[in-house]
Structure formats: C-alpha cells, structure tokens
Fold this protein.
Amino acid sequence: MEHWNERPLIYQFFEIVQIIEGEGIRIVNEHKFPYKKDNLFLFTPLDCRGFESSTPTRFCSIRFSTVFLEQYKSKEEKEKVIQRLKQLENIFIHHNNFEQVMIKRDADCQMISSLIGNIINEYNDKQSYYDENLQHLVTLVLNIISRNVSRKEITVLNTKFTEPLVNKILVYLHQHIYCPEKLRIKNLADQFNLSPNYVSEYFKKLTNDSLHCYITKYKMNLISQRLIYSEYSLAQVAAEFGFTDESHLSRQFKKHMGIAPSEFRKHKEH
C-alpha cells in the first residue's frame, strides 16, 4: 500500500510483521522508529501499532488471532496450540519491542524470508492441506525467531550496545509475571537501582502506561488465553499467576475484564 490508512490501533493478538519492500516510519505506543525492506517486527497484544510509509510498502503480517488459534480438531492439536502460545510468550519475554528483531545468522534471515514467501503463497493459493501447511510453516518461523531473540546485548560492527533500561524492566516484568512479590515497586527499585518514587514515573514516561496498569493488562491477557486454550482449572490458573485462591482470581478478573472467569471460559467455548 502507498499509505497506511488506519490510525495506530491496539489489536488483541500477537503479530509478526515483515517488510517485503518499502520504507518509512513504524509507530509503537506513540514512539516512532524507521523501517526498511526485510525488517522483521514483533507486536504484543498490548502494543498500539501503525506505519507511516515514505515509499509504497508491502507487508506480510502473521497474526495469532483467536480464529487462528482455535483451529484445532483434537486434544493433541489443542496441546500444540498451548505450546505455541507459551513459545510466543517466551519470545516476547526476551524481545525489545522498540526495535526490529535482530537475526544473527544470514542463513536464518534467508530461511525466514523463504518461509514467509511460502506462507504467502499457501495462503493465496489455498490448495489442499494449505491450512496444515500454514501451521507447520509458522511453527518453523517461530523456532528460528526463538533462537535469535534470547540475548542480553546487541552487537553491531563489533560494538556492543547495552539494552535500554526500560526494555530490561519490561523483560523483568514478563519473566516474573507469575510472582507478584517480585513486581512490587521496592523490589523493582532495588533490581534496577532506581528510587522507589521514580520507578512508576520513569516507566510511564517511556511507555505511556502506568506500571500497575501495564502489569494488570499483561497478566489478564495471559489469564484469558489460559482460560480459552488450556484445560487448567480456575484453582490451577490462580496458583500459576500468584493469586491467593480461586476467589481472589475471580474478583480481580471480573474487576478488570467485566466478566467472571468461569463465564468468560463458557462464553468462549460457544
């Protein structure tokens, strides 16, 4: 397209975007970053995303929407979906969403481009077994991204650049989303050598979202996915995310999502 016609929006799904051709500006949570051909970007369900193209741009977007993830026909396929969700969570724990994905090996870059080309062809042609092929191709893309995003430093031309502090905080929040005590202001201040009074101010300044609001939205999004795609009981989900009991989880979920978790699960099953 010559112009991205939609204003930046928040979508409720993980998304991988590759720039097939073109260049311009990528918008993430009101921050602007350049993009060019072959760049690969990851977006979480919490990211407000958009593009401003300076030259006509072709995008390939792989969206892990509810429709895609609900296309399983057996218990075994449902387990694969749960594993894919956990792999997505792991990728986004380590990825800095303020930059493109840094693929370390040329062979991996070529493989991702080739796989995405095959995904586009399968999707457009819709020949026999195309949906199964899409599942396998997407899994391969995720596997290659997974082995490239888990890193502490970015090396460019033999020069090391330390990861931005805000991204270290985001990574820490994602890693410890199941441990509420580690997400307390005092612990975050000690962990990142910041004043307790400055932690929330710094986070909001860099992300345009309050620390408490971000943690709550991220946690509720993960819980929603557990309720939809896993067979965990409410008690198991509550224990996994550090709630005192099932009632505590139910109260917090209903407060933020407007519906009880049991009703949410029942509604999604229909």
